[in-house]
Amino acid sequence: MIISDVDMPNMDGFELLEKVKDKNADTVFILMSGRPENEARAEGCKADAFLAKPFSINDLFDIVQTYIVE
Question: How far is residue 64 from each of residues 3, 6, 30, 39, measured CA to CA in Å?
Answer without folding.
Answer: 10, 19, 10, 18
